[in-house]
Design goal:
The complex is a heterodimer of chains A (113) and B (112). Helix content of chain A is 0%, strand content 52%. Chain A is an all-beta fold and 113 residues long. In chain B, strands 2, 4, 5, 9, 10 and 11 form a six-stranded mixed β-sheet that branches. In chain B, strands 1-3-8-7-6 form a five-stranded antiparallel β-sheet, with no helix packed on it. In chain B, a hairpin with a 4-residue loop joins strand 7 and strand 8. Chain B starts with a strand and ends with a strand. Classes of the chains: A mainly beta (113), B mainly beta (112).
Chain lengths: 113, 112
């Protein structure tokens, strides 16, 4: 069964900490995405990547960075966590030319205290 | 700038009833309109999708209706069941890039 795996289901971090959220996919997909999900705001795109070592800013990149050193792994980095980054973070992957075929991970619920 | 507007934000329907979620878009370059279903504790999963050259697509109890001239599309869930209780996202995308634009979601609750 193909899947996208997010390393942590729940995380609690302190304000100012550097936070790493990891995502691994086993489908050999080229594209990977990071979204955050907040009530009433839906899914908002943070960063995406169409290839190894390539990254593009999404709609809300401020306060985040990403790393894609290997095709299967896409990491989201909160350089200095703040309370307004408390959210559900979702990773997804897809094949080029098949944007409807997003496969999402189960999410990481991050709480910054 | 919200490119896909979704309503209602939440919806309560009796078991056996019809659930209707509506979406509207502005960008005429969109050429694919998927719907995603998300259960609590899970990521969204593709439910059904439609292209603008088709006015309706049906898969089981789920139907997408598409009105290209009005730039609107909707999801109908017939004979709604408690197991349909979830958050539903409409979305849109183009063939020029691989990004999906999502609506803000509708929390659907089906009363037993």
């Amino acid at each position: 069964d193909v899947k996208v795996t997010q390393s942590s289901r729940y995380l609690v971090k302190r304000t100012g900490e550097k936070v790493f959220l990891e995502c691994v996919q086993d489908m050999d997909h080229e594209n990977m995405f990071w979204y955050r999900q907040d009530p009433g705001l839906g899914l908002r795109l943070i960063y995406f990547s169409y290839d190894v070592k390539m990254k593009e800013k999404g709609d809300i990149p401020e306060g985040y960075s990403v790393s894609r050193e290997k095709k299967e792994r896409f990491s989201l980095i909160l350089e200095s966590a703040s309370t307004n980054q408390t959210s559900m973070y979702l990773c997804a992957s897809s094949e080029p030319g098949q944007p409807y075929g997003y496969t999402f991970g189960s999410g990481t619920r991050l709480t910054v205290v | 700038q919200q490119q896909v507007k979704q309503s209602p934000q939440s919806l309560i329907v009796q078991k056996g009833g019809i659930s209707i979620i509506n979406c509207a878009y502005e960008n005429t370059a969109f050429d694919y309109f998927p719907w995603y279903q998300q259960f609590p504790g899970k990521g969204p999963a593709l439910l059904i999708a439609i292209r603008p050259d088709v006015s309706e697509k049906k898969e089981g109890r789920f139907t997408i209706s598409f009105n290209k001239s009005a730039k609107q599309f909707s999801l109908h869930i017939m004979d709604s069941q408690p197991g349909d209780s979830a958050t539903y996202f409409c979305a849109a995308t183009t063939n020029r890039d691989d990004k999906i634009i999502f609506g803000k979601g509708t929390r659907l609750h089906i009363l037993p």
